[in-house]
Amino acid sequence: MTIGGTAAWWVAVALGARLPIFAALVPLVAMTGDPFAAVSVSLGRILGVFAGVAIGVACVHLPLGLTVRVAIALLLGTFVAVAVQIGGRPNLEVPIAALFLIGFPGAHTEQLGVQRIWETAIGAVVAIVVSALLWPPDPVRQLTHDLDRLRQELVDDLTAIAEDIATGSGETSAFLDEVRAHSLDAVRDVFEIDAARRALRWNPRSRHDAEEVDELARRIRLAARIYRHTRSFARDVADEPLRDERLAQATRHLADATDRALRGDRPHVPLERAGGSLGGGTLLAHQLRQLHTDIAAATTGYGSSDAET
After folding, report:
1. Contact between 176 and 246 (Cβ < 8 Å)
2. Nearest to 222 by CA among 252, 190, 185
3. Rounded Cα distance, 97 and 104, in Å
4. What is the pLDDT of residues 125-147, one digit of tens each?
5. Which residues contact 89 (CB under 8 A, 6 or more apart)?
6. Taking the chain, what is the end-to-end CA distance rounded to the nearest angstrom?
7. Whether residue 274 has pLDDT greater than 70
8. Mean per-residue pLDDT of the chain
9. Half-sphere exposure in the Cβ direction for 34 (13 Å, CA)
10. What pLDDT, on a 0 to 100 scale, did the predictor assign at position 307?
């Protein structure tokens, strides 16, 4: 953001602008912390700035009082912001840019609009170049980070539930909200997969990573399915505390299988051990069998791995 804003200011000044605030403003509002949208979101925000400038220029020329012009600019800007959304949210750059233009002093109204528009164009070009070349989105890195977090949380939660079942302590109820939160995080990570694939278009160095992104996406979806089972399993364990070493051992084996599957290793050995421990027809055993089936189905065809030993 600093490099983009400074570069846009420098270019605009070199082309004859005086105090090119809008040139420096566009990179600041266009770049976000979204790892999958360094350029795509920038384009949406840039369009918002252009729309806001157009509304501001029109309102500056209205023969009305300043407060009335501000109200009209905010009203029109808000309508446009709702129509031109970014990620399902109103593009607030539209009313902000319109308001900024009306309140910006120092130029005649006849020159104000044109000057701000070409300043915005300079800022837009610089924002896109900086986003695409200096710090492009890296879907592989972000998806790997998300998957590692999910894998660790799943293993920790399943292990904690297993210890509760082994001891009959009833401690699962104490961290049930945390399991729910982790499950919702997994769903959000699944929703980000499409954005990660789109981000490949904006990073020339990562276009060859499409297959790796697909593999990471498959494992993240598997993690989300496992968390759905884990959340339901944890709720039932919390509702009816019990002590069952065999069921606890099956849960530990499934935690191991989950860890291996999400790493890309063969989970077949712990799956076989878990299957041997899942006797009986209790609801909890049935839920673990569903989890067992999901992991086995998702990992069919995995190659051999040293982790299997």
Report:
1. no
2. 190
3. 10
4. 888 888 777 766 678 888 999 99
5. none
6. 49
7. yes
8. 83
9. 20
10. 39
H and E: helices and strands count for the chain: 12, 0
Model confidence at 306, pLDDT cuts 50, 70, 90, reads very low
Measured CA distances, 249 to 53, 88, 179, 253, 271 (Å):
64, 44, 20, 6, 12
| Burial class for 163, CB neighbours closer than 10 Å (0-12, 13-18, 19+) | middle
Residue 221 contacts residue 143 (beta carbons within 8 Å): no
HSE (side-chain half, CA atoms, 13 Å) at 53:
22
3-state secondary structure of 138: coil
Given the structure tokens 């170049």, which residue do they identify? Answer: 129
**CA–CA separation, 287 vs 281, rounded Å?**
10
Q: How far apart are CA 77 and CA 54, in angstroms?
A: 10
Q: How far is CA 47 from CA 25, 29, 60, 93, 275, in A?
A: 13, 11, 20, 9, 56
Pairwise CA distance, residues 139 & 4, whole Å? 22
Q: Tokens 């420098």 belong to which residue?
A: 10
pTM: 0.69
Distances (CA, A) of 263 to 22, 68, 152, 157, 259: 47, 60, 10, 17, 6
pLDDT surpasses 60 at 108:
no
Pairwise pLDDT comparison (109 vs 123), residue with the higher score: 123
In whole angstroms, give the CA distance from residue 304 to residue 163: 30
Q: How far apart are CA 154 and CA 182, in angstroms?
A: 8
The pLDDT of residue 304 is 42
Q: How far is CA 22 from CA 50, 56, 112, 115, 253, in A?
A: 10, 13, 11, 9, 59
For residue 234, give both structure tokens: 């944890």
Q: Rounded to whole angstroms, how far apart are CA atoms 190 and 192?
A: 5
> In this predicted structure, what is the pLDDT of residue 301?
60
